[in-house]
Amino acid sequence: GSDNEIAQQVGSEIIGIDPGSGLMKATAKAMQDYGLDDWRLVEGSGTAMTAALSQAFSQQQPIIVTGWTPHWMFIKFKLKYLDDPKQSFGGSEEIHTIVRLGLKNDMASAYQFLDRFSWQPSDMEAVMSLIADGMDPAAAADKWVDEHPDVVAKWTEGIPPASGQTIRLALVAWDSEIASTNVVGSVLEKKLGYKAELLQVEIGPMWAGIAGGDADAMVAAWLPTTSIDYYNQYKGSFEDLGPNLSGTKLGLVVPEYMEDVQSIEDLR
Ligand code: PBE
Questions:
Q1: Do 149 and 166 sit in the same domain of this protein?
Q2: Protein residue closest via CA to atom 2 of ligand 1
Protein backbone atom coordinates (compact mmCIF):
# COMPACT_ATOMS: atom_id res chain seq x y z
CA GLY A 1 0.00 0.00 0.00
CA SER A 2 0.81 3.66 -0.29
CA ASP A 3 2.20 5.66 2.60
CA ASN A 4 0.38 8.74 1.33
CA GLU A 5 -2.17 9.65 3.97
CA ILE A 6 -4.88 10.76 1.58
CA ALA A 7 -4.41 7.58 -0.45
CA GLN A 8 -4.97 5.55 2.69
CA GLN A 9 -8.09 7.51 3.58
CA VAL A 10 -9.79 6.82 0.24
CA GLY A 11 -8.25 3.43 -0.56
CA SER A 12 -6.28 4.98 -3.46
CA GLU A 13 -9.51 5.29 -5.44
CA ILE A 14 -10.78 8.14 -7.56
CA ILE A 15 -14.48 7.77 -8.32
CA GLY A 16 -14.92 8.35 -12.05
CA ILE A 17 -17.84 8.46 -14.49
CA ASP A 18 -18.56 6.82 -17.87
CA PRO A 19 -15.38 5.48 -19.51
CA GLY A 20 -15.81 7.25 -22.87
CA SER A 21 -16.14 10.73 -21.40
CA GLY A 22 -13.50 13.38 -21.88
CA LEU A 23 -13.32 13.78 -18.12
CA MET A 24 -12.10 10.18 -17.72
CA LYS A 25 -9.46 10.69 -20.42
CA ALA A 26 -8.32 13.90 -18.73
CA THR A 27 -8.17 12.12 -15.37
CA ALA A 28 -6.07 9.28 -16.80
CA LYS A 29 -3.72 11.92 -18.19
CA ALA A 30 -3.58 13.71 -14.84
CA MET A 31 -2.75 10.46 -13.08
CA GLN A 32 0.21 10.03 -15.44
CA ASP A 33 1.29 13.66 -15.21
CA TYR A 34 1.31 13.56 -11.40
CA GLY A 35 2.74 10.04 -11.10
CA LEU A 36 -0.31 8.56 -9.35
CA ASP A 37 0.70 5.02 -10.33
CA ASP A 38 -0.72 3.39 -7.20
CA TRP A 39 -4.13 4.97 -7.71
CA ARG A 40 -7.17 3.43 -9.38
CA LEU A 41 -9.72 5.35 -11.43
CA VAL A 42 -13.10 3.68 -10.88
CA GLU A 43 -15.39 3.61 -13.94
CA GLY A 44 -19.09 4.12 -13.50
CA SER A 45 -21.49 6.88 -14.42
CA GLY A 46 -22.34 10.42 -13.44
CA THR A 47 -25.21 9.06 -11.37
CA ALA A 48 -23.00 6.55 -9.55
CA MET A 49 -20.45 9.30 -8.88
CA THR A 50 -22.99 11.68 -7.30
CA ALA A 51 -24.48 8.79 -5.31
CA ALA A 52 -21.04 7.97 -3.90
CA LEU A 53 -20.49 11.64 -3.08
CA SER A 54 -23.84 11.91 -1.36
CA GLN A 55 -23.12 8.77 0.66
CA ALA A 56 -19.68 10.08 1.70
CA PHE A 57 -21.20 13.41 2.80
CA SER A 58 -23.86 11.77 4.91
CA GLN A 59 -21.07 10.15 6.96
CA GLN A 60 -18.49 12.95 6.49
CA GLN A 61 -16.16 10.40 4.93
CA PRO A 62 -13.25 11.29 2.65
CA ILE A 63 -13.80 10.82 -1.09
CA ILE A 64 -12.22 11.96 -4.34
CA VAL A 65 -14.38 12.18 -7.47
CA THR A 66 -14.00 13.37 -11.03
CA GLY A 67 -16.14 16.46 -11.37
CA TRP A 68 -17.19 19.22 -13.68
CA THR A 69 -18.84 22.63 -13.72
CA PRO A 70 -21.65 23.52 -14.28
CA HIS A 71 -23.01 20.94 -11.86
CA TRP A 72 -25.62 20.94 -9.10
CA MET A 73 -23.23 19.08 -6.79
CA PHE A 74 -21.41 22.35 -6.10
CA ILE A 75 -24.71 23.86 -4.93
CA LYS A 76 -25.77 20.87 -2.80
CA PHE A 77 -22.40 20.06 -1.24
CA LYS A 78 -19.44 22.12 -0.03
CA LEU A 79 -16.78 20.97 -2.47
CA LYS A 80 -13.44 22.12 -3.80
CA TYR A 81 -11.44 21.38 -6.92
CA LEU A 82 -7.93 20.17 -6.22
CA ASP A 83 -5.34 22.55 -7.69
CA ASP A 84 -3.93 21.35 -10.97
CA PRO A 85 -0.59 23.15 -11.34
CA LYS A 86 0.37 20.99 -14.34
CA GLN A 87 -2.94 21.91 -16.05
CA SER A 88 -3.67 18.30 -16.93
CA PHE A 89 -7.38 19.10 -17.05
CA GLY A 90 -6.91 21.98 -19.48
CA GLY A 91 -8.51 25.39 -19.19
CA SER A 92 -12.05 26.65 -19.27
CA GLU A 93 -14.07 25.44 -22.27
CA GLU A 94 -17.23 26.13 -24.21
CA ILE A 95 -20.09 23.76 -24.93
CA HIS A 96 -20.98 23.69 -28.62
CA THR A 97 -24.20 22.85 -30.43
CA ILE A 98 -23.66 20.27 -33.19
CA VAL A 99 -26.22 19.38 -35.86
CA ARG A 100 -26.34 16.89 -38.70
CA LEU A 101 -25.57 17.98 -42.24
CA GLY A 102 -28.71 19.06 -44.06
CA LEU A 103 -30.64 20.16 -40.96
CA LYS A 104 -30.63 23.75 -42.16
CA ASN A 105 -32.79 22.79 -45.16
CA ASP A 106 -34.83 20.01 -43.58
CA MET A 107 -35.77 21.76 -40.32
CA ALA A 108 -35.10 25.43 -40.89
CA SER A 109 -36.92 26.67 -37.79
CA ALA A 110 -35.18 24.25 -35.45
CA TYR A 111 -31.87 25.10 -37.06
CA GLN A 112 -32.38 28.83 -36.50
CA PHE A 113 -33.23 28.32 -32.85
CA LEU A 114 -30.35 25.90 -32.27
CA ASP A 115 -28.01 28.41 -33.87
CA ARG A 116 -29.19 31.06 -31.38
CA PHE A 117 -29.41 28.84 -28.30
CA SER A 118 -26.98 30.07 -25.66
CA TRP A 119 -27.30 30.48 -21.91
CA GLN A 120 -25.38 31.00 -18.69
CA PRO A 121 -23.87 28.40 -16.33
CA SER A 122 -26.27 29.68 -13.63
CA ASP A 123 -29.24 28.89 -15.92
CA MET A 124 -28.04 25.36 -16.49
CA GLU A 125 -27.43 24.92 -12.75
CA ALA A 126 -30.95 26.07 -11.96
CA VAL A 127 -32.43 23.35 -14.16
CA MET A 128 -29.95 20.77 -12.85
CA SER A 129 -30.91 21.60 -9.27
CA LEU A 130 -34.63 21.13 -9.93
CA ILE A 131 -33.88 17.71 -11.39
CA ALA A 132 -31.48 16.80 -8.56
CA ASP A 133 -34.28 17.66 -6.12
CA GLY A 134 -36.46 15.05 -7.78
CA MET A 135 -38.35 16.84 -10.54
CA ASP A 136 -38.80 14.99 -13.82
CA PRO A 137 -36.27 16.45 -16.33
CA ALA A 138 -38.91 17.41 -18.90
CA ALA A 139 -41.02 19.11 -16.22
CA ALA A 140 -37.98 20.96 -14.85
CA ALA A 141 -37.13 22.19 -18.34
CA ASP A 142 -40.72 23.31 -18.98
CA LYS A 143 -40.72 25.20 -15.67
CA TRP A 144 -37.45 26.97 -16.48
CA VAL A 145 -38.73 27.87 -19.97
CA ASP A 146 -41.99 29.24 -18.49
CA GLU A 147 -40.08 31.31 -15.95
CA HIS A 148 -37.61 32.82 -18.46
CA PRO A 149 -39.82 34.24 -21.22
CA ASP A 150 -37.35 37.00 -22.16
CA VAL A 151 -34.46 34.61 -22.71
CA VAL A 152 -36.66 32.21 -24.63
CA ALA A 153 -38.08 35.04 -26.77
CA LYS A 154 -34.57 35.99 -27.86
CA TRP A 155 -34.01 32.42 -28.99
CA THR A 156 -37.28 32.11 -30.91
CA GLU A 157 -38.35 35.61 -32.02
CA GLY A 158 -39.44 35.67 -35.66
CA ILE A 159 -38.93 31.97 -36.25
CA PRO A 160 -41.96 30.42 -37.93
CA PRO A 161 -43.25 27.34 -36.08
CA ALA A 162 -43.02 23.91 -37.71
CA SER A 163 -46.02 21.62 -38.07
CA GLY A 164 -45.30 18.68 -35.81
CA GLN A 165 -42.14 17.25 -37.36
CA THR A 166 -40.13 15.00 -35.06
CA ILE A 167 -36.64 16.21 -34.19
CA ARG A 168 -34.22 13.76 -32.61
CA LEU A 169 -31.92 15.17 -29.92
CA ALA A 170 -29.02 12.97 -28.85
CA LEU A 171 -27.55 13.20 -25.36
CA VAL A 172 -25.38 11.39 -22.85
CA ALA A 173 -26.85 11.01 -19.36
CA TRP A 174 -24.57 13.59 -17.75
CA ASP A 175 -26.64 15.80 -15.44
CA SER A 176 -25.51 18.96 -17.27
CA GLU A 177 -26.60 17.60 -20.64
CA ILE A 178 -29.85 16.15 -19.30
CA ALA A 179 -30.68 19.73 -18.28
CA SER A 180 -29.64 21.47 -21.51
CA THR A 181 -31.13 18.88 -23.86
CA ASN A 182 -34.47 18.95 -22.04
CA VAL A 183 -34.58 22.75 -22.22
CA VAL A 184 -33.87 22.67 -25.95
CA GLY A 185 -36.53 19.97 -26.35
CA SER A 186 -39.02 22.02 -24.36
CA VAL A 187 -38.50 25.11 -26.54
CA LEU A 188 -38.77 23.07 -29.73
CA GLU A 189 -42.04 21.54 -28.53
CA LYS A 190 -43.72 24.40 -26.68
CA LYS A 191 -42.62 27.30 -28.86
CA LEU A 192 -41.68 25.95 -32.27
CA GLY A 193 -44.18 23.24 -33.11
CA TYR A 194 -41.84 20.25 -33.18
CA LYS A 195 -42.07 16.92 -31.45
CA ALA A 196 -38.75 16.45 -29.68
CA GLU A 197 -37.48 12.93 -29.21
CA LEU A 198 -34.58 12.58 -26.77
CA LEU A 199 -32.15 9.76 -27.54
CA GLN A 200 -29.99 8.87 -24.57
CA VAL A 201 -26.80 7.14 -25.71
CA GLU A 202 -23.10 6.82 -24.89
CA ILE A 203 -20.73 9.55 -26.06
CA GLY A 204 -19.39 7.64 -29.10
CA PRO A 205 -22.83 6.78 -30.47
CA MET A 206 -23.95 10.37 -29.83
CA TRP A 207 -21.34 11.68 -32.27
CA ALA A 208 -21.81 8.76 -34.67
CA GLY A 209 -25.56 9.38 -34.61
CA ILE A 210 -25.17 13.02 -35.66
CA ALA A 211 -22.52 12.15 -38.27
CA GLY A 212 -24.69 9.38 -39.72
CA GLY A 213 -27.87 11.42 -39.66
CA ASP A 214 -29.71 9.18 -37.19
CA ALA A 215 -29.86 12.08 -34.76
CA ASP A 216 -30.58 15.68 -35.73
CA ALA A 217 -28.79 17.71 -33.08
CA MET A 218 -26.97 17.70 -29.75
CA VAL A 219 -25.87 20.41 -27.32
CA ALA A 220 -23.15 18.40 -25.55
CA ALA A 221 -19.84 19.08 -27.34
CA TRP A 222 -17.30 20.36 -24.81
CA LEU A 223 -14.49 22.06 -26.73
CA PRO A 224 -11.63 22.61 -27.43
CA THR A 225 -10.48 19.75 -25.17
CA THR A 226 -13.01 17.39 -23.61
CA SER A 227 -14.76 16.18 -26.80
CA ILE A 228 -11.91 16.80 -29.23
CA ASP A 229 -11.27 13.13 -30.15
CA TYR A 230 -14.85 12.70 -31.34
CA TYR A 231 -14.85 16.13 -32.99
CA ASN A 232 -11.78 15.18 -35.04
CA GLN A 233 -13.01 11.68 -35.79
CA TYR A 234 -16.26 12.94 -37.35
CA LYS A 235 -15.05 16.27 -38.75
CA GLY A 236 -16.77 17.07 -42.06
CA SER A 237 -19.82 14.96 -41.17
CA PHE A 238 -21.57 17.47 -38.90
CA GLU A 239 -22.15 21.20 -38.61
CA ASP A 240 -20.78 23.07 -35.60
CA LEU A 241 -23.16 25.89 -34.61
CA GLY A 242 -20.73 27.27 -32.05
CA PRO A 243 -20.90 27.71 -28.30
CA ASN A 244 -24.12 27.57 -26.27
CA LEU A 245 -22.37 28.08 -22.90
CA SER A 246 -18.95 29.27 -21.74
CA GLY A 247 -17.10 28.87 -18.50
CA THR A 248 -16.84 25.14 -17.84
CA LYS A 249 -14.28 23.39 -15.67
CA LEU A 250 -13.07 19.83 -15.11
CA GLY A 251 -11.00 18.33 -12.34
CA LEU A 252 -10.66 16.23 -9.23
CA VAL A 253 -13.14 17.27 -6.56
CA VAL A 254 -13.21 16.62 -2.81
CA PRO A 255 -15.41 17.73 0.09
CA GLU A 256 -14.24 20.93 1.78
CA TYR A 257 -14.00 18.97 5.03
CA MET A 258 -10.94 17.22 3.58
CA GLU A 259 -8.75 20.02 4.86
CA ASP A 260 -5.39 18.30 4.37
CA VAL A 261 -5.58 18.07 0.60
CA GLN A 262 -5.45 21.09 -1.69
CA SER A 263 -3.65 19.95 -4.82
CA ILE A 264 -3.43 16.88 -7.03
CA GLU A 265 0.25 16.94 -6.08
CA ASP A 266 -0.77 16.06 -2.51
CA LEU A 267 -1.98 12.64 -3.71
CA ARG A 268 1.46 11.40 -4.61
N1 PBE B 1 -18.65 15.84 -18.89
C2 PBE B 1 -19.90 16.58 -18.99
C3 PBE B 1 -18.48 15.37 -20.28
C4 PBE B 1 -18.86 16.48 -21.13
C5 PBE B 1 -20.04 17.01 -20.39
C6 PBE B 1 -17.63 16.77 -18.47
C7 PBE B 1 -18.84 14.76 -17.96
C8 PBE B 1 -17.19 14.65 -20.65
O9 PBE B 1 -17.01 14.23 -21.79
O10 PBE B 1 -16.37 14.47 -19.78
A1: yes
A2: 174
**Residues 40-61: tens digit of each pLDDT:** 999 999 999 999 999 999 999 9
Q: In ligand 1, which atom is closest to the CA atom of 17?
A: 7
Q: With b meaning 16 or more CB within 10 Å and e meaning fewer, what string describes 72-95?
A: bbbebbebbbbebeeebbbeebbb
- Give ipTM to 2 decimals: 0.96
- Ligand 1 centre and the CA of 238: distance in Å? 19
161, 101: one domain: yes
Together in a domain, 206 and 121? yes
Residue 128 CB–ligand 1 contact under 6 Å? no
Over residues 179-209, the pLDDT tens digits come to 999 999 999 999 999 999 999 999 999 999 9
Q: Are residues 130 and 196 in the same domain?
A: yes
Residues 104, 236, single domain; the answer is yes
Full residue range of the structural domain in which residue 84 is found: 5-91+249-267
* Distance in angstroms (rounded) separating the CA atoms of residues 41 and 88: 15
Number of domains in the chain: 2
